[in-house]
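Thread: quick sanity check before group meeting

JM: Hey all, I'm pulling together slides for Thursday and realized we never actually wrote out the predicted structure for the chain we discussed last week. Dropping the sequence here so it's in one place. If anyone has concerns about the input, flag it before I start.
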Amino acid sequence: MRIEPYQRWVRGRVDGATVVDSKRAGLLYEPGRLPVYVFPEDDVRLESVPPAAVRRVDDLIHVEFAALDEWLEEDEPQIGHAPDPHHRIDVRATSRHVRISIDGQVVADTTRARALFETGLPVRWYIPREDVTATLEPTEHRTTCAYKGRASHFTVAGAPAVAWSYPDPLHDGLPVKDLIAFYDERVDVEVDGEPQARPQTKWSPGR
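JM (edit): ok, ran it. Output follows.
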C-alpha cells in the first residue's frame, strides 16, 4: 500500500452540495485495486456522506466514488473512478489484417483497424463499422471507463454484449470514436493469419 500526493483540486458533490473539497488530495494504491482518492479529514463534510461509504486510512479519509453524484478535478467532471496518472492509452492506426469470428462465423474483417494499447490490458482492435460484416444489435448494457468514456454494447451473431463502441468519448477515446471493438476473451481473433490466444481477464467467460 502506498499514498502519492495528487496535485489536482478535487471536489465531490451530493444533490448539488459540495461534500468534498480538497487541494491536498492523495491517491491510495493497494494491490489488485484501482487507485482511490484520500483526503485530510478537514476537507470532507463527514456528516453529509453515508457512513458506509467512508473508510479511514491512517489519518486520511477515503470516500467511495459511487457514493457521490459528481466528482470534479479542477473544473472537469470525472467518471467511473479516480484516474491513475501512471495509466496510459496509446492508439495506433494499423494495416495488419484483423479477422474476428464467433462460433466459426466471420463477423469482422479489416486492414484498417486501430490498435488501442492500454496499461495492464490486452490490445484492443477497433474496427470501422463498414468492416463489421455481421449485424450489430444494440443492447441496454453500458460500461464506463474513466479515460475513454461511456461505451454502448452490441450483441453480435448471438453473442450477448460482445462488442462495444464509444459514441461520445472522452479525450483518450477520441481516436476510436464510433469504431467497434470485441472482447477478445469471448471471440476468435486472427491477426495477419495467426490465431491469437484468448486473454484471461475479468471479462473472460465464467468470470
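AS: nice. The CA atoms of residues 20 and 44 lie 5 Å apart. The chain has two domains: 2-78, 89-195.
JM: adding both to the slides.
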